[in-house]
Design goal:
The chain is α/β, with parallel strands linked by helices. It has 14 helices and 13 strands.
Length: about 400
């Protein structure tokens, strides 16, 4: 099956060639004005966990000249400032690469950008953060130029990337669970086993907070969801049902949502939810975390979300489905409570409700989780190993 994917890519290359050649000619006549050490390709700069990781990676190279190409239209500019720096050049090319009615421009821009990279005086590095254009660009880049990709978890990119594996020296994944799932996918598609060795695990890192003082108080149990409004993966509809059950049963607990969640919640359930909206200011995000007792996730699947790291670093308990790498870091009864993911949404809501009942009945559990999570985060989630790993790859 993998051989057919490679053959398909090569046949498509014949049709793409004249457009890429046109792009190459344009780039030769209109070269970049500066030399760059690292070329980054990202789809978006709106609010999202992947965007936060991407911006953190970029900021680990203050001593290098960096250029970032954003290839798809972002919903907002909430995260754009996190990508900026005196050493960083930003290029928004979505008007060319994200236009389905003029798709030929995407093909031309593969030639343009590839020529920019190939014509650098000093051999640069290329980094693709789950960017479709980045994958389609990769065959046009000289073989001697090192290309690195980052993939967070099993998703559509797990399949998009398959024909382009030969062009990547290293594949970064953020969780062991994701690595295991991708290796299983490799076997299913008869991808040669030597690609397994190109996979490297790099845990995401966060800036550890200096102040971890809880602002939640001792009254109503404050429960926080952080993320996008998504029903399929994040099950925000099930979280809204939980919020309703808390109200109906008279449990003194409140479910707070940080992110653009409200549109995804059924209208009849919105009155039971406290929507905080999207936040991009780090101080405000920190205040929201510390104003809650726990982070709650009912996700159907995950790698290892940044929000879990950020919550644990501030002492929040974690109440979550046992998906991805969460069970590696969240030990049931030690620093959080895990929910069996293999059940219906109704059963998930009932089990989550019981977990919150338990925490309300025994506040000493929250105190213990608070202490254990801060200690664990300081030992495992700092930026130093994250920075060291990415610098070793791209310098």
């Amino acid at each position: 099956m993998y051989k057919w994917l490679i053959l398909k890519r090569r046949i498509e290359a014949l049709f793409i060639f004249p457009f890429a050649l046109l792009g190459k000619c344009y780039a030769l006549l209109n070269p970049l004005k500066e030399e760059y050490d690292i070329f980054f390709f990202f789809p978006f700069y709106h609010v999202g966990g992947a965007e936060k990781v991407n911006s953190d990676i970029v900021q680990q190279f203050p001593d290098k000249k960096v250029i970032i190409f954003f290839t798809k239209k972002s919903k907002n500019e909430a995260m754009l400032s996190f990508f900026k720096g005196p050493h960083i050049t930003l290029r928004e090319i979505s008007q060319h690469t994200d236009n389905k009615w003029m798709y030929w421009k995407n093909l031309v821009w593969r030639g343009i950008v590839a020529t920019y990279i190939n014509k650098q005086t000093k051999q640069p590095r290329v980094f693709n953060g789950q960017c479709n254009f980045g994958y389609k660009l990769s065959p046009h880049i000289k073989k001697k130029i090192k290309q690195v990709e980052l993939i967070h978890l099993i998703c559509s990119f797990s399949y998009i990337r398959m024909p382009f594996l030969p062009f990547y020296d290293t594949t970064v994944m953020i969780s062991q669970d994701s690595i295991d799932e991708h290796k299983a996918l490799y076997r299913k598609y008869s991808i040669p086993a030597y690609y397994d060795a190109r996979i490297q695990l790099i845990l995401n890192g966060i800036t550890l907070p200096g102040d971890t003082t809880s602002l939640a108080g001792g009254g109503e149990l404050q429960c926080l969801y952080v993320g996008r409004g998504d029903i399929g993966q994040k099950r925000v509809d099930a979280l809204a049902l939980l919020a309703k059950k808390l109200k109906d049963e008279g449990l003194p607990a409140r479910l707070n949502f940080m992110g653009n969640v409200a549109p995804a919640v059924p209208e009849n359930l919105r009155p039971y939810c406290n929507f905080l909206g999207e936040k991009s200011d780090p101080a405000e995000i920190d205040r929201v975390y510390r104003s809650n007792h726990l982070l709650i996730l009912l996700s159907a699947y995950e790698g290892f979300p940044m929000v879990v790291m950020e919550a644990m670093a501030r002492g929040l308990a974690v109440v979550s489905t046992d998906v991805g790498d969460l069970p590696f870091h969240v030990k049931d009864g030690v620093n959080g409570l895990l929910i069996n993911n293999d059940q219906t949404d109704a059963a998930l809501v009932d089990e989550a409700f019981k977990k919150l009942q338990l925490l309300l009945a025994d506040r000493s559990l929250l105190a213990r989780f608070y202490t254990n999570n801060i200690a664990y985060a300081r030992s495992h989630f700092g930026m130093e190993p994250f920075a060291k790993a990415y610098r070793a790859l791209l310098i």
